[in-house]
Design brief:
Blueprint (H helix, E strand, L loop, with lengths): L4 E9 L2 E6 L2 E7 L1 H11 L4 E5 L4 H17 L4 E4 L5 H9 L4 E4 L1 H5 L2 H10 L4 E10 L2 E6 L4 E6 H11 L3 E6 L11 H10 L4 E4 L5 H9 L5 E4 L1 H4 L5 H10 L7
Parallel strand pairs: 1-4, 1-12, 4-5, 5-6, 6-7, 7-10, 10-11, 11-12
Antiparallel strand pairs: 1-2, 2-3, 7-8, 8-9
Helix pairs in contact: 1-2, 3-5
Length: 251
């Protein structure tokens, strides 16, 4: 049985880890490399770094940061945020990222998935998918959930798999930030219809929610930010609880 993965997510602006609500009232919570090291030492399986810088200078700072992370952290890490072209992805992968995550750019130009996968391999490509339930149908949203599309969630998930994505990172924008758990029925359907791993994101308020999405929703990994950053639960505590519930994790 493959072990389920626990993945802290760090939002980075101008080289610093920040946290807020919907990117508002951001406050600095630490150095991205030092926090990544700490999470690695605690037993995190992977890390995700999201660049939320708006300026060109901030993007350059993030690229430099990726090089530092690659040199100093020994667990796999994915980078995303602001990747709008093949060249953007190539720069980050060449700087040392283990994977890149694309979202709105893939919706705008689905061929981007295949171009990156053809050059670097599917295992380097994570497609992040945000969606909302609109009158009983899950539809994609883009640009951080601020723009709705007419694209149906499950058909898009199958398409990104067919185009060469190695993994999907799914966030329900209806559940994100609510800390009331995940839409388990979505992850169960992914498990039935897809052959690539799915990371659950958005909705974790406690360890029980994470256990539910890994066991009852069949997600391959769970990503979280605030509950780790603010010490609501530590990774060792979480993993011990998951093991006690019969969920296979690496200790």
């Amino acid at each position: 049985m493959l072990a389920k993965r626990i993945i802290p997510c760090l939002d980075v602006r101008e080289g610093k880890t920040v946290k807020g609500i919907n990117f508002v009232n951001l406050r600095t919570v630490g150095d991205p490399v030092e926090m990544g090291k700490a999470y690695s030492d605690q037993g995190a399986d992977e890390l995700v770094y999201l660049d939320i810088s708006a300026s060109r200078e901030g993007r350059k700072t993030f690229l430099d940061l990726v090089g530092r992370i690659s040199e100093e952290i020994n667990i796999p890490f994915t980078v995303g945020g602001g990747i709008s072209s093949y060249d953007d992805a190539a720069r980050l992968l060449d700087a040392g990222a283990d994977k890149i995550s694309i979202n709105s750019a893939a919706v705008a130009d689905p061929s981007l998935i295949g171009r990156i996968a053809a050059s670097y391999g599917s295992q380097f490509v994570v497609v992040a998918i945000d969606a909302r339930n609109v009158e009983g149908t899950w539809r994609l949203s883009t640009h951080g959930g601020s723009r709705m599309t007419d694209i149906e969630l499950f058909s898009w998930a199958k398409e990104v798999q067919e185009r060469g994505a190695g993994e999907i990172l799914f966030t329900s924008m209806d559940h994100d930030g609510m800390k009331k758990g995940y839409p388990l029925e979505v992850y169960r359907r992914f498990n039935e219809e897809l052959s690539i791993p799915v990371i659950a994101s958005g909705g974790a308020g406690n360890s029980t929610h994470i256990a539910e999405v890994l066991a009852d929703g069949y997600a391959d990994a769970a990503l979280a930010a605030s509950i780790f950053h603010f010490g609501e639960i530590t990774i060792p505590e979480l993993k011990r609880e998951l093991l006690s519930k019969g969920i296979c994790v690496r200790i």
